TrEMBL record:
<keyword id="KW-0500">Molybdenum</keyword>
<dbReference type="InterPro" id="IPR036374">
    <property type="entry name" value="OxRdtase_Mopterin-bd_sf"/>
</dbReference>
<dbReference type="InterPro" id="IPR030835">
    <property type="entry name" value="Sulfite_DH_SoxC"/>
</dbReference>
<feature type="signal peptide">
    <location>
        <begin position="1"/>
        <end position="30"/>
    </location>
</feature>
<keyword id="KW-0732">Signal</keyword>
<dbReference type="InterPro" id="IPR014756">
    <property type="entry name" value="Ig_E-set"/>
</dbReference>
<keyword id="KW-0479">Metal-binding</keyword>
<dbReference type="GO" id="GO:0050310">
    <property type="term" value="F:sulfite dehydrogenase activity"/>
</dbReference>
<dbReference type="Pfam" id="PF03404">
    <property type="entry name" value="Mo-co_dimer"/>
</dbReference>
<feature type="domain" description="Moybdenum cofactor oxidoreductase dimerisation">
    <location>
        <begin position="285"/>
        <end position="395"/>
    </location>
</feature>
<feature type="domain" description="Oxidoreductase molybdopterin-binding">
    <location>
        <begin position="101"/>
        <end position="261"/>
    </location>
</feature>
<dbReference type="InterPro" id="IPR005066">
    <property type="entry name" value="MoCF_OxRdtse_dimer"/>
</dbReference>
<keyword id="KW-0560">Oxidoreductase</keyword>
<dbReference type="InterPro" id="IPR006311">
    <property type="entry name" value="TAT_signal"/>
</dbReference>
<protein>
    <submittedName>
        <fullName>Sulfite dehydrogenase</fullName>
        <ecNumber>1.8.2.1</ecNumber>
    </submittedName>
</protein>
<dbReference type="InterPro" id="IPR000572">
    <property type="entry name" value="OxRdtase_Mopterin-bd_dom"/>
</dbReference>
<dbReference type="Pfam" id="PF00174">
    <property type="entry name" value="Oxidored_molyb"/>
</dbReference>
Length: 413
């Protein structure tokens, strides 16, 4: 049964007016009573500039990044975004997931340089001041590590959406279109690939196809209105919207134009995908269409029968989301969720569906579609075509079981 938003609102209003508790929320019938005057109304609040850079309320102290995997060195470990606590589509900077192969370097913007060389007419070295003089653009894009949800190829045992899907964040990025800067150095016609190198201890390098470089790649220096966080590549990172996280080289110091890919260490060992038939596929750049329900979740769920709003996020590295279907019966039947504007290219899209929970166990799933004709696969379909060897690019439908007591668990277990 589909319950429209209007119906919920009217029935809610009627119930409130009638003093009934069929909403079964914990709201209490007010009668004619007034609220007690809270202490906060008797006191002077804390002064301005404490602290000068603002922090969330102390009651939100559990809303933090968490380590998903503890690696040999602390700096190799990675942290995940608390998707269960976020609203809308933007990830606050302090909650952006982190993946570094050799920790976070400290780089002064005055000292930082970007070299562009190789198959170009005029090799140039840019300062940050030089880069910030170019005409800038701001765009909202997600960033997803290709290892996001990799634990779900096998049955992970993670019940938290932060652990299963939290190598994913979404910011408004500001910077210079890479094409403008490439125009300045002048590309030779043989230039087909660009090697991007980071200034961290890992010296991370990836090969970027020229087509993407000239399309929507960006030299980003700001994130959600402020300069990049050190963890996100301060003072400069490459942003290749929709492509796997690894290609978005942080602390960017060098771009070398060549006529073929470099097959860097990242490309030959780490970020390849071994298939069931023994072949491997490399250069799986775009992140596939995917979605996940973020409410209810293992931290916050249905408490009593009644009306709720199921909510989640959907994204595609190839374009924008056109449709998200939600199932509450483990994928037997589907209802179309509403997509909240703005719906942008290579960006998280928030979806919502009203739901009247009767207290029965349910399995909630979401399935996303994009404007390039892609649809999110079921777990069994994905595994049937790719096997369980690949570590990367897991984009299957995620199921959450809500038990009669409201407890949420991962359905794939
Ligand atoms: N220089 C450099 N760039 C890097 C990395 C790195 O270790 N060094 N990690 C990559 C990986 S694997 C991912 S998923 C993204 C993560 O970006 P974030 O830490 O801003 O979330 O950065 C990529 N760029
Ligand atoms: Mo990554």
């Amino acid at each position: 049964m589909s319950v429209s938003r209007r119906r919920i609102l009217t029935s809610g209003a009627v119930l409130a007016a009638g003093g009934l508790s069929a909403m079964r929320s914990s709201a209490v019938h007010a009668g004619g009573a007034a609220l007690e005057i809270p202490d906060s109304m008797h006191e002077q609040g804390s002064p301005v500039l404490s602290p000068a850079y603002g922090l969330p309320s102390k009651f939100e102290k559990n809303v933090v990044r968490r380590i998903r995997e503890q690696r040999v060195t602390d700096t190799e470990s990675f942290t995940v975004t608390p998707l269960q606590n976020l609203h809308g589509i933007i990830t606050p900077n302090g909650l952006h997931f982190e993946r570094h192969h050799a920790g976070v370097p400290e780089i002064s913007p005055d000292q930082h340089r970007l070299l562009i060389h190789g198959l170009v007419d005029r090799p140039l070295i840019f300062t940050m001041d030089d880069i910030m003089r170019f005409p800038a653009v701001s765009r909202v894009h997600f960033l997803e590590c290709s290892g996001n949800s990799s634990t779900e190829w096998k049955k992970s045992g993670y019940h938290s959406v932060q652990k299963t899907h939290g190598l994913l964040s979404c910011c408004e990025w500001t910077g210079v279109p890479l094409s403008s800067v490439l125009g300045e150095v002048g590309l030779k016609p043989e230039g087909k690939w660009i090697l991007a190198e980071g200034a961290d201890g890992a010296g991370m390098t990836r090969s970027i196809p020229m087509e993407k470089a000239l399309d929507d790649a960006m030299l980003a220096y700001a994130q959600n209105g402020e300069m990049l966080r050190p963890e996100q590549g301060y003072p400069l990172r490459l942003l290749v919207p929709g492509f796997e996280g690894n290609m978005n080289v942080k602390w960017l110091r060098r771009l070398k134009v060549g006529d073929q890919p470099w097959y860097t260490r990242e490309e030959t060992s780490r970020y390849t995908n071994l298939l069931a038939n023994g072949k491997a596929y490399k250069f799986a750049f775009a992140m596939d269409v995917k979605s996940v329900v973020t409410f209810p979740n293992a931290d916050r769920s249905f408490k009593a029968p009644g009306f709720y709003e199921i909510s989640g996020i959907a994204w595609s590295g190839r374009g924008h989301i056109t449709r998200v279907d939600v199932s509450v019966d483990g994928g037997k039947s589907w209802q179309r969720a509403s997509l909240q504007n703005p719906v942008l290219d290579k960006c998280l899209t928030r979806f919502r569906l009203p739901f009247n929970w009767q207290g029965q166990p349910v399995e909630i799933q979401s399935k996303a579609y994009d404007n390039q004709g892609w649809m999110q696969p079921s777990r069994s379909n994905l595994i049937a075509t790719r096997g369980t060897n690949p570590r990367y690019h897991f984009n299957a439908i995620q199921g959450w079981i809500v038990a009669a007591d409201g407890r949420v668990t991962n359905a794939s277990i």
